[in-house]
Amino acid sequence: MKKKISFKLFLTVVWRGVCQVLKAIGKLFGYKEGTAFGKVVWRVFATCVTTLLLLLTVSLVYVFCNDVVYRKWILPNTSPSVYMEEHLGNSIYFQDLYYRNGRVLDKENGKTLIDDVKWVAKTTDTLAVFAVDDKRGFLNRFTGEVVVPCIYDRAWVFAEGLAAVEKNGKLLFIDQSGKVVIDKGHIAPFETDGFFFRSGYCVVSNAADDNWGLIDKTGSWVLAPEYEHIGHPNDSLWVVKKNGYYGVLTETLDTLFAPELCGVVVHDNFIEARFDDHTAKLFDFKGKLVEDFVIDEVENMTYETTELRLVEVEDEGTVSGMEEPVNAVADCQKYGVNNEVLGWRYGLLDRKGKRVTPPVYTSIDAIGKDLYLCMPYGTIINGKGESVE
Fold this sequence. Notes:
Blueprint: H1 7-27, H2 36-74, E1 82-89, E2 92-97, E3 102-106, E4 111-120, E5 127-132, E6 135-140, E7 146-152, E8 154-155, E9 163-167, E10 170-174, E11 180-182, E12 202-205, E13 212-215, E14 221-227, E15 229-234, E16 237-242, E17 245-250, E18 255-261, E19 263-266, E20 271-274, E21 280-283, E22 289-291, E23 297-315, E24 318-339, E25 343-349, E26 363-368, E27 371-375, E28 379-382
Antiparallel strand pairs: 1-2, 2-3, 3-4, 4-5, 5-6, 6-7, 8-9, 9-10, 10-11, 12-13, 13-14, 15-16, 16-17, 17-18, 19-20, 20-21, 21-22, 23-24, 24-25, 26-27, 27-28
């Protein structure tokens, strides 16, 4: 007849076995059972083991209660509490819920179409990116139907009929049926705002040196990946950066300005270009010069005269007089032009706003009514821009 082994007996046998093994190991290091020192060591050890077992038991109970009891038994049978609600289209809504992931709901019939949804991206396109667990897919925001299942690591919204997706570090493009239409081995750097087709082209990084170029909708390079940055400020221009300098390309990728500019700002109706001679000029979108003199700031300059004035100075309750020179405003003003590559440079303006000198100085200070100390070379010039010996 087999003897029934209780759980208590099983734990006792296991515990004694562990103790015997530990005692055998301890004897290798000089531990002797029955001695005063041995009893102290054993009590410390027993206390530590008991504490660890207690912490392990509490952890296991917490995991079981949280992952099994609460999430699998209690939560599914509890009416969800809505934290935030977003309208997707027609009668379709995304509801972000308290204490659990959200859901895509058809409010017309109250049916949950997709459960355990982390988020749904806002878009004006028919298909919207959504996330389940750590994967991305696409749903029809007007019907709630899953068009592309959540199989991608990252995904971006559709633009011009194509959407970029990432799988295992590789950048792909899919159409609105979910079919992969571009798979050319491009990479998807993590530090990017996304990949979107604009005017028929998409900015993509190469795998060699992390430079950027443009591909068309076949995935072929139409602008070689040799730029540090490519921007698309409007529908008709591309701004590129190469070796620290900027250039401007047209919508058809013709060169409007070679990458030799120290800075470019595209405004609503004109291009503001900054050159390595520290000047800034305005051009229209065809490259025609509109304004050849652009500045960022104008400042009056003062200088110390030989005239003195008496000012009162109070020191520990005692008022006394002190002479100080009177400052006067110089005849010319200082104007500044900021250059992203070269920094601030300054020049002289007369009182009629006419440019006296180009902005080639790191600083200008008035030292007389019509005399100016210009750095970095310590040159002194007059109000006509002439050097004074």
